[in-house]
Amino acid sequence: MGIRTVAVYSKADADVLHVRQADKSVLIGDALPTESYLNIFAIIDAAKKTKVEAIHPGYGFLAENADFAEAIQAAGFFFVGPAPEVIRQMGDKVQARLCANNAQVPCIPGVDKSLSLEEVKQFAGEYGFPILLKAISGGGGKGMRRVNHSDDLEAAYKSTVREAQASFGDGRVYVEKYIENPRHLEVQILGDGQGKVVHLGERECSVQRRHQKILEETPSPSISDSLREKLLSAAVQLGQHVRYGSAGTVEFVVDGEENFYFLEMNTRLQVEHTVTEKITRIDIVEWMLRLASNEAFSLSQSDITFSGHSIEARLYAEDPTVGFLPSIGKLVHFEAEQKEGILIESVVEGGSEVTPFYDPMIAKVISYGASRKQALEYLD
């Protein structure tokens, strides 16, 4: 697209690849996220100094923060994402459930408000265990606790509140009935903010650890064509209901009888968006930029075709001997060999430091083949 880029970075990220690859880079603070990547003033100040036109929030930290989007627009920049009021509405998990209900999209049984510990106990008494505690402002697998027994409830509730407050600045918690052995499916959508919404197919995201995705693939190998059509239709329906603009993802859980329930909506670019781009040949980030600049949304559902199969494996710096906890330190050797059918997107190289301050994902390995069998063979 010929767009020049400016990267912002913390002191801990001074030597990472994106800082060197951007046309310009600006230091915005110390390593702690609150002093850098969560510092709205510092980011906007960097944008002013470098005279940018638009700010893309990526897929972490402030990506789903409505106050950030509003501040960007108030400062005179384009925000590459949906309208702040939609981020606020769908980022609040309780409000998102209400929107889904109003759009006739099925939801998991739960209580659509912030709950005290005593209120959670009452819910568990009515619906039984297991239950799932969730941060109202949560996302990315954080601020979630499955509770199997009443003896564990108080400690899990307090832990969820602490994590929610630390991760999102909002300690409010709600509760849902936990769906046993669920599959996790999500649908990629694009919208123009005026009611036009298209889907780019579904992704299977059921392989997770601690509620964080490890493998994603598209199309899903686990669902029937009839369920696929229901999921795609429900996602578009919800997007139209909230007049969604930009790229977004509607997430669902599916039980063993193919009943599906709305889980949440991510009002941002997803880590795994590349697999969708592989099978549709549609550049999602490009469309985000075009929509943010108020370009007419010329893409229609009939324009979108699907071909082949794509799988993404996330590579984490973790130690399997201690329950796959994040592992920090110098990366002595890292070799990202690009080969047929494989794309490697990495933020590290040999000699890079893996710090304790941020997510331990260091690379994504994406395969694409004419079939699932071929995509799996490329990953081998």
UniProtKB/TrEMBL annotation:
InterPro entries: ATP-grasp, BC-like_N, Biotin_carboxylase_complex, Biotin_carboxylation_dom, Biotin_COase_C, CPAse_ATP-bd, PreATP-grasp_dom_sf, Rudment_hybrid_motif. One of its GO terms (molecular function) is ATP binding. It comes from the Eukaryota. Its cofactor is biotin. Residues 97-293 form the ATP-grasp domain. Keywords: ATP-binding, Biotin, Ligase, Nucleotide-binding. Pfam families: Biotin_carb_C, Biotin_carb_N, CPSase_L_D2. Residues 1-380 form the Biotin carboxylation domain. This is Biotin carboxylase. It comes from Stylophora pistillata (Smooth cauliflower coral). The gene is accC.
